[in-house]
Amino acid sequence: MVTVAVTAKFHNPSLSRRKEWQQATQLYRDNKQFCIDGWENGDFDKSVTTASINNNLYSAIQNQAIREAKSDHSKDGAVRYRESQPFAVNNQNWELDTTENGTVVVGFPCVSQWWYTPIEVYDDIADPVERLVEGDADKTRLQVYRRGDDWYCTFNIEYAADTAGETPIGVDIGERHILAATAHGEDKSMLVSGGEAKYVRRKYRSLRESLAEAGALRARNRVGDKEQRRITDLNHKLSRRLITFAEQFANPVIRMEDLEGIREDSSWSGVHSWHFHQLQQFITYKAERAGIRVEKVDAYHTSQRCSACGSTGTRDGDHFSCSECGRGRHADLNASENIAQREGDPCTA
């Protein structure tokens, strides 16, 4: 299943629409605050319904405000909403359609009526929007909000992925080799040493320790900022190299390990200061801009499994060997090939 997050700007909404939408954001805030205050004061329990709410919002929007207030209250307790809130409606109470001239419009209830308003469909969202219009995709809740003088809506579109003819690119991120990537079935790979990253970390760690001993805390903080910029620049370069590698293949899909919990599971002490998550983020958004889907796969045993026969092999430094089939390969490339072979959960279109 592919999930695409869509944010679209409304095209020249009328003054009356903008006034009513602004009113709705304020009523939505008041609706949520009414629920929070009622729960805090013991006026009613969490089963509160729209019958207890006295404002002019459509009941579908009031119900969504109640759901959001429950979530906020469960997490943060006595919340105070200082600003107007984007108002929302669940997936069953809004629609996306086209006019006779092909203009895409979003329809949703508000205060006085349903509003059908054109949105600007840019290239990156054209395909999923068309799928939704044609009935080949599902949608999630709609949010409407103001940014400056403009109004926007945001929602997710979900549809089944067509994986025919794709080239899976497995990506392993590690210490000795920061990136190892293999194009499954293409007999091509790339391997990038982690030496530069380790040098940056050692250099700035030493500087921080020296400055801390000297009591120069302000200078120590500036050193930390410089290290962050160096690492961020490196991650940008690495992610660009990977996208360039992937683009040479037909219909590439990048697959990376789901690194949730790696800080707890890793034996490498440097994992606590290395920006794994940032590198994956850069890869993900650059891939999305290039039209390449990214998936997160289960990281279990990608380093121990033989990518050729599936047996458990032996890793000795950078070398992986399998006693069952006799295969020997660079250990990180073996891991990247295992990653390429696994289907995962999409995090881009």
Automatic annotation (TrEMBL):
A GO molecular-function descriptor: DNA binding
InterPro entries named in the record: Cas12f1-like_TNB, RNA-guided_DNA_endo/Transpos
Record-annotated Cas12f1-like TNB domain positions: 276-339
Q: Which UniProt keywords apply?
A: DNA-binding
Q: Which residues form a coiled coil?
A: none
Give the transmembrane region(s): none
Q: Which domain of life is it from?
A: Archaea
Report whether ATP-binding shows up as a keyword of the record: no
The UniProt entry, under NCBIfam families, shows: guided_TnpB, IS200/IS605 family accessory protein TnpB-like domain
Q: What is this protein called?
A: Transposase, is605 orfb family
* Organism this protein belongs to: Haloarcula vallismortis ATCC 29715
